[in-house]
Amino acid sequence: MSSVFLTIPRAESMRFIYVLFVLLVQIPTQASSSKVDSLLNAIAHLQKQGSNQLLIETHLKLGKVLSSKSEEKYEQSIHHYDIAAKIALDEENYPSAATAIFLSGVSHKRTNNFQKALEKFYQVIEFEEGMIDPLEKARAYTQISAIYQALGNYEKAFEQQMQGLIIFEVKEDSLGIANSHYNIGTIFFYQLQYEKALESYQKAKELCDALNIEYNIYSCLAALGAVHAKLELQEESLDYNLRSLELAEKLNYKTGIAYAKGNIGSNLVTQKNYIKAEAFYKEAIQLKTEFGDTYSAIGNKVEIAQLYLEWGKAKEAKRYLEEALISAKELDSRGRQSDIYKNLALVYDQLNQPLIAYKYNKRYVSIKDSLLNEKTLEEMGQSKRRFDVQKSEHEIQMLKKGNELLAKNEEIRTQQIYLFAITSFAFLMFILWNRNKLNYQNKVNKLLEEKNQLLNSKNDEIHIKNKQLELSNEDLQQFAYVASHDLKEPLRMINSYTQLLKRRYSASFDDAGNEFMHYIVDAVGRMEILLNDILDFSRAGSQNLPTTFIDTNDVLFMVESNLRHRLEMLKATLIIKNKNLPLIKAHRTQLLQLLQNLVSNGMKFKGERDPIVEIDAQPSANGYVFSVKDNGIGISKENLEKVFEMFRRLHTREEYEGTGIGLATCKRIVATWGGDIWVESEEGQGSTFFFSVPNVALQPSHSSEMEIAPVG
Ligand code: ADP
Questions:
Q1: Which of 6, 49, 269, 641 is the most buried (most CB within 10 A)?
Q2: pLDDT in tens, 43-58
């Protein structure tokens, strides 16, 4: 077993991180019942007096005390927060109302009433600008994000967290920024993007270190322990987990101790240190059971059972699994039940009772299948919606943001001119009349101040819009990648099962059945191409890919061999006019992709004639300019720039197949080395695509024109 940590059910790790996140946001403090009583007395007193502001504050204080005590009191805390919110709203005291609604949301979240919690947090966000502290909104976004995480909607979680992060950054709120990075790390963690999760957790930890808030540092250490384990860096993982345990013990923080122990247990199993691992798991289970975190305790019970199985102690394993099964059924957690059945099957296998093992395996498979089907269906639904709207939404949003930004700039410029005119006018008046000097000066100053304020707030807005643009770009890119990457797996399943269906049952289908099957296979094939293209597109945006000097001749040789079959089918000829091609500083796969896209378009968009595609490269003032020329259908003048836009196609799928992503990807690739791409063409006259490469090195060889593929 290479890594037991990796076999921890995914949900266990999620829960682990989720609980930590909650802690990062709000650290519980102890309260005494006498405090509750005295606050209740104060409320009764204030109600008689009719002092509303104090009443709001006291309800808030009482809510906080109740929500910090123990889980049963969350309901009561909600009651007081809601009263505080109602009084504050009646009084039009929006900042206090927002605080009360926010805290009510937090308490709802703690009782796992996510729907109600979301309602509350959205209410905070919907307060009009200027009515409440923007940071309150940022914190609400963070909470919404955490809920979407818990519900498994990572896309929404990411989007909401980004909204929060923008505000935190503009307001330079370090704790908010730290929490946001932590949250983003967790989203990546769920998405199995461990490298990215690590990066975000490290950012969060740096900020938490600087702020020196020990509970938050604990959360970061624990998260870093988890992510290192996923990256199979067991030593680092153990180190972080031990440090988190030490800190939790210093803080006498029970939940923290329990989680750290569970994770150290997993580390120790990978080191085959079973005796120590057993002790750590047992302590974790005991602590979690004590404070009622049954879900997580089940996770540790399954893990300890796995340990016993590895150790050859099937009876011990059985005992823990049976216990865990009772709790999992009580919680109605099918995910946990599925894990338990799987391990029970292994136990009975080890106990030489194959019939019972078979029974549990069947249960495991049936639950797993139903979980999988639900997940696949949901993902399919999501993917469909995503693809339907992606094209329009992406472009419209980008356009809208660009336009807004332009409009804002324009507005500012006009205001600056007005401001200048007004100021000059006021100044002129001042000199001309030179009377009531003080009066005038005051007026001018006031005017100036107002205009300056206006300018500042506009500048703030622009700053925020800029940030939003920047982040939404990254955000889109990341999600395009994650979504297309994750969608490939279910698609592969659909593909292989429809192939199977076709192979085994097509004889028993009638004509209509076979036709439907054909449509499915065809649609799946297209979706696969689309996903691959989107993946290529998002990869092409990455600035982090390693580059070296690459021999273009080698790459062209690969292009030719990759396309050889199509060249032959289409009776196409590929001519390389300049054999003395330079070395280009690029990423090999990207360069290959660029040239292959251009050459295959040159063949694809053919007219009556057999395609001829010519590749050339000429030195320019600044590096080299490559060209890919074809004798195909050409492109009309008004479309010369449009073809590089994402999803832009000039033809229907029936005329020419494609996704409209290839040239957008080419543009991105060229942009990574600071080059340019453009096309010269006339309808019916073929097209020549050019791209420039600033960073080249020459090589010594030289030869004349070389012909690669024969005319068929
Ligand atoms: P796809 O080929 O998948 O449709 P691309 O992004 O590669 O997508 O190209 C976008 C559009 O530009 C194509 O649909 C086509 O209309 C036009 N186009 C691209 N290359 C050529 C070419 N060599 N000749 C004529 N039209 C072209």
A1: 269
A2: 888 888 877 888 999 9
For residue 315, how far is its CA from the centre of ligand 1 (angstroms)? 65
Question: Cα(648) to centroid of ligand 1, in Å?
Answer: 8
Q: How far apart are CA 245 and CA 267, in angstroms?
A: 13
Which of 649, 661, 670, when mutated, tests ligand 1's pocket best, judged by the most ligand atoms within 8 Å of its CB? Answer: 649
Provide the residue type at 68 as one letter.
S
Give me ligand 1 centre to Cα 634, in Å: 10
550: Cα separation from own chain's centroid: 33
Look at residue 583 in the predicted model and tell me its pLDDT. Answer: 84
Amino acid type, 540: A
Pairing of the two strands 583-586 and 696-697: antiparallel
CB atoms within 10 A of CB 623: 18
- Beta strand 706-707 pairing with 612-620: unpaired
Alpha-helical runs (H) found in 541-641: 552-569, 588-604
CB atoms near residue 374 (< 10 Å): 11
Helix (H) or strand (E) holding 137: helix 134-151
pLDDT confidence band for 93 (50 / 70 / 90): very high
Strand partners, 551: 583
Give the separation between CA 415 and CA 153, rounded to whole angstroms. Answer: 43
Comparing C-alpha atoms, which of 464, 473, 601 is closest to residue 543?
A: 473
Q: Using CA atoms, how far apart are residues 267 and 269, in angstroms rounded to an integer?
A: 6
Q: Are 682 and 634 in contact (CB under 8 A)?
A: yes
Give which of 147, 110, 106 is closest to 124, Cα–Cα: 106
- Inform me whether the pLDDT recorded for 460 exceeds 60: yes
**Burial category of 544 from C-beta neighbours within 10 Å (exposed 0-12, middle 13-18, buried 19 and up):** exposed
Give, rounded to a whole angstrom, the gap between the first and last alpha carbons of the chain: 55
Q: Minimal CA–CA distance to 692: which of 627, 625, 641, 594?
A: 625
Residue 167 corresponds to which tokens in the numbers above?
Answer: 């505000």
Residue 75 main-chain phi, psi, to 5 deg:
-55, -45
Of the spans 264-278, 443-457, 469-483, which averages the highest pLDDT? 264-278
Q: Which atom of ligand 1 is nearest to the CA of 597?
A: 7
pLDDT the model gives residue 65? 87
Q: Is the CB of 337 under 6 A from ligand 1?
A: no
pLDDT band at 411 (very low <50, low <70, confident <90, very high): low
Arithmetic mean of pLDDT, 88-112 = 91
Amino acid (1-letter code) at residue 590: Q
Q: What is residue 13's predicted lDDT score, i.e. its pLDDT?
A: 37
* Rounded Cα distance, 302 and 309, in Å: 10
pLDDT tens digits along 625-650: 999 999 999 999 999 999 999 888 89
Phi and psi for 583 in degrees, rounded to 5? -90, 140
pLDDT at 501 over 90: no
Name residue, tokens 């205001």: 415
Element holding 607 (H helix, E strand) = none
The DSSP string of 438-464 is HHHHHHHHHHHHHHHHHHHHHHHHHHH
Alpha-carbon gap, residue 435 to 711, rounded angstroms:
92
Average pLDDT over residues 346-364: 87
Contacts of 642 (CB under 8 A, 6+ apart): 648, 650
Contacts of 704 (CB under 8 A, 6+ apart): 579
DSSP conformational letter for 630: E
Scanning the structure block, which residue is given the tokens 């059972």?
A: 305
Instruction: Give residue for tokens 């498994």.
Output: 152
Cβ of 686 closer than 6 Å to ligand 1, yes or no, is: no
Cβ 607 under 6 angstroms from ligand 1: no
* Local structure of 526: helix, strand or coil: helix
Nearest CA to ligand 1 atom 20: 601
Tokens coding 577: 């006019």
Atom of ligand 1 nearest to the CA of 648: 10
